[in-house]
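Q&A FORM
Asked by: J.P.
Topic: structure of Branched-chain-amino-acid aminotransferase

PROVIDED:
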Amino acid sequence: MAWGQFSVTFAFEPHPAPVTASEREARLVDPAFGRVFTDHMAILHYSEDKGWHDGAITQRVSLTMDPASSVFHYAQEIFEGLKAYRLDDGGLALFRPDANARRFNASARRMAMPDLPEELFLESCERLVLTERDWFPAIEGGSLYLRPFMIASEAFLGVKPSAEFLYMVLASSVGAYWKGGARAVSLWVSHDYTRAAPGGTGEAKCGGNYATSLVAQQEAIRRGFDQVVFLDAAERRWIEELGGMNIFFVFDDGSIQTPPLTGTILPGITRDSILTIARDEGLVAREEPYAIDQWRADAQSGRLVESFACGTAAVVTPIGRVAGPDYDFAIGSGATGQLTARFLDRLTAIQRGRAPDPHGWLRRIG
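REPLIED BY: S.T.
REPLY: Here is the structure written out as tokens.
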């Protein structure tokens, strides 16, 4: 592939001692999320004088980096998350990787990092999946989770954008996020910590956003809840998102609502997919602010009948209980709601190639 004056290819450098077939089979019986990694990874280098260069699908190894590398000191790094699926006809497919490629570059621009041509993003993911096709778990809900990421690798101590970067893609064998089906989770509403502020990095998929959410997540778990949900930084009133998932509200008239993308919320690809599916089915799908007091009142009055979170890893997660410093309320029956279950079924059917794909979301690669 040629990009301006630069030519980029992904050489194949096979692992000299890959995991044996029997060992791989044992690891794939019940893989925990993000714990089982494949033999290979994709890697690509960037420098201001060469642009993108030296691409390879190579063995997954530990990195050797200078301790002065910019990523360690100034946190210039971004990442993505997407899944590859083995379809019922034996083929392989990625779900909406073009959307991940666009969001990756949007994050890069916010973090003063170089754009990665979308075709290179797609090729790196496709080539890695095809190389690791034997790592798909043969279990219900099994898939390959891909983690593309970019880090600043120039060694210097000074506050400026790095001139050198590494782009890599890891592949991890995963099973269904929830064993035995999705269960309703409980949420603690953080009134002490916020995830993002206007003008910040809330809409970029960078590690700093997740690092700042961890102390609030720890508090939620310490109080006996599964996840934390954040409010806006200005008024501490408007619901934004969970530590790693977008959120939806379902009302008794069949309409759904999710907070709008105003720069402080990650533009989730699962979020966008659910909005599209809902509108395809004739449902009213609003992108409007929703206050914590309103959520509580609507849940107690019965106007709000379901809530759910969504993201790449778990796809759709029902919410059964919400609590804060001086309130605690149930969502509907406290279990998975009908529309929540329907969105989960519709979306996973498209991802698995078991339902029509009118928007061309599946990218078949083999």
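FOLLOW-UP: The domain at 185-351 is CATH 3.20.10.10 (D-amino Acid Aminotransferase; Chain A, domain 2).
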